[in-house]
């Protein structure tokens, strides 16, 4: 595997959700030593994260805006959860009733 030069640009992917159920991805090339904030600025999303309405992570792990990026990183911009996932799952189970209880439906 060939080593990349130190001055090679960073190829990263920026993913964010414009609305529930829809995710957009943007491939970016940034200079070495770039941060999450610079990636957001390149995509025009820096104001949304600065307001605290959105949070950032790299490969699913929360990071600060000044976190440095590495080649191949996936920066994810996420919203706060509106409903606790456990509460939502219980509500779905209550709505579907006992008729389709999953794998153990026929087991007694």
Can you give keywords for this protein?
108 residues, alpha+beta, Ubiquitin-like (UB roll), five-stranded mixed sheet, 5 strands, 30% strand, Mopterin_synth/thiamin_S_b, UPF0125 protein GCM10022279_12620, RnfH_sf
Q: Give the second-level CATH assignment, the architecture of the domain at 10-80.
A: Roll
Low-confidence stretches: none
Cα end-to-end separation: 56 Å
Profile the largest sheet: 5 strands, mixed
The largest beta-sheet arranges its strands as: 2-1-5-3-4
Instruction: Supply the CATH superfamily name of the domain at 10-80.
Output: Beta-grasp domain
Silhouette = elongated
Radius of gyration: 20 Å
What's the count of strands?
A: 5
**CATH class identity of the domain at 10-80:** Alpha Beta
**Average predicted local confidence, pLDDT:** 80
Q: Please count the helical segments.
A: 3
Beta content comes to: 25-35%
Helix content: 10-25%
Structural class: alpha+beta
**Oligomeric nature of the chains:** single chain
- The third-level CATH topology of the domain at 10-80 is Ubiquitin-like (UB roll)
Return the string of H and E elements: EEHHEEEH
Family: Belongs to the UPF0125 (RnfH) family.
Protein name: UPF0125 protein GCM10022279_12620
Organism: Comamonas faecalis
């Amino acid at each position: 595997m060939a080593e990349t030069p130190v001055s090679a640009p960073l190829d990263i992917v920026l993913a964010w959700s414009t609305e529930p159920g829809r995710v957009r991805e943007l491939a970016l090339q940034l200079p070495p030593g770039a941060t999450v904030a610079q990636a957001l600025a390149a995509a025009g999303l820096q104001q949304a994260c600065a307001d605290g309405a959105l949070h950032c992570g790299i490969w699913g792990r929360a990071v600060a805006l000044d976190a440095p990026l590495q080649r191949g990183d996936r920066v994810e911009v996420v919203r706060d959860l509106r409903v606790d996932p456990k509460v939502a799952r219980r509500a779905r189970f209550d709505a579907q009733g006992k008729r389709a209880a999953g794998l153990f439906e026929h087991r007694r």
